[in-house]
Every structure is written in structure tokens, then in C-alpha cells.
Amino acid sequence: MSRAQRQLTAALDALDRTFASEEPFPVEGCTYCYGEGGLAELSKPLHLIAEDMVSSVASEVPSHWDDFPRLYRRLAPRIVRSVVTGRLHADENLIATRLLEAGWSTWDAPLAGALRDVWSAWWEATLHTHPSPVSVRDTLSLITVVTGGVRPWLDMWNATRTPAADAHLTDFIDDVLVEFQIVDLHMGFYDEYHAAPELLDWLLTDVRERLDDARLDDPYLFEAVQKATRSTHSASPDRA
User: Fold this and answer.
1) Which domain of life is it from (predicted)?
2) How many structural domains are present in the chain?
3) Which domain holds residue 14?
4) Cβ proximity of 127 and 163 under 8 Å
5) Residue 123 in domain
6) Residues paired with residue 187 on neighbouring β-strands, in sequence order
7) What global pTM score does this model have?
8) Are 92 and 146 in contact (CB under 8 A)?
9) Residue 240: Cβ-neighbour burial (10 angstroms; 0-12, 13-18, 19+)
10) DSSP letter string over 93-142?
């Protein structure tokens, strides 16, 4: 196991310990979809809840539960570990949305801090592992949406000069250059984060020398960068 993988394992284990203070409570919600038996199962200690139930709740709309934030907070260690290891039967992008809806960043400082440690460790482990359990695009999308910014993660990618990081770059380019979707790329299940301007600038400047792909020299991409830059400046407050 690599150093990055050991750090991720440690972050996930720390997440379990930190969230252990979240005790079981009587879960109430939509009995049509889950039935009394399902609600009873969700009221049990965390380790007694089946994987399929965790996956189902992970992507379920908040209106199904009387206390969605508390339920999602208690299930967070199971949900996040399953996402990171590629075992969750749900769209990774939707998990970011649900975490935002549950208000994860406003949880008690130790809980939110443990999650932030996982995001960083997961991204570092991804950049050192190819192939990774979750695609680099989905991983980047989740941590971007859930933290509200893509640039810190791109900076980490730029600073990581490993064969795995370069292989992920190639995969990412092959993905986002299909029909030049990069020029209007949004991240998140509901397109919560408009990543195109930052990604385009990063690909064409910071990491361009690491990519042997002639498509990145297409004038259309440079025009898109210039357009995005003009739009950003025009949207900024007037300068004195």
C-alpha cells in the first residue's frame, strides 16, 4: 500500500471514530418507499444497516425524511467510505449535492474537519493511483462541488508529477474534449459548479506541457478562454 493510500485509510478510519458520537435515533419518513421495516433498520446502530440501504438513502431526496440532516450526518461515514472505495451504488455527483443539502460544512467542527481531511486524502490518493476506484472526473467533480471550488484541487494536480497523475490527465482530457464539452463544463449532478473557465485556463497553461494532445491547440479553445475571461471581467465590480 502506498503512502497516499495509507493516508486515505487513516482519514477514513478517523472519520469513523469522529462520527461515532452520532448515536442511533428513531428514524421517521416515507413509509411508502421504505416501509416500517426500512425505517426500523435505519434506526439501528450504524454497522447493522445493510449496504443496499445505505446506498438508497445516500441518493434519496431530503423530503423523504423527517430529519434529513441528522440521518445523513449519522450515515456519512458509511456513505463516504463507500463512495471513496467505489462501492456505492449511486451517482457520486449526487452525493455531493446531498452533503450540501445536509449542511455538512456547518456540522460540529470535528465532524466537518474529518470530512475535509478525507477530501484531501482521497484526491491525493487518486493522483497516485491509476486506475482509481472512481474516475478522476467524478472524484474531482464531487470534491469541487462539496467544497465550492476547483482551483485548490487543480493546484494539487499540477504539483503532483507522478505517472498516475499524468495518466489521469490523459483520461480527463479524453473525457472532456469529446465534442469540446470542456468549453461549457459544469460539475455536479445539477450542474452546480461552472468549472469551464478555470479548467480551460489550467489545461492550456499550467499543465499544457504534460499533455501530448493536438486538440488542445485548437483555436476554438483559446477563443473560449478569451470569452470566459471577458465575461469574468465584465461581471466584476467596477474598479476605481
Assistant:
1) Bacteria
2) 1
3) 3-234
4) no
5) yes
6) 193
7) 0.91
8) no
9) exposed
10) HHHHHHHHHTTGGGS-HHHHHHHHHHHHHHHHHHHT-SS-SS-HHHHHHH
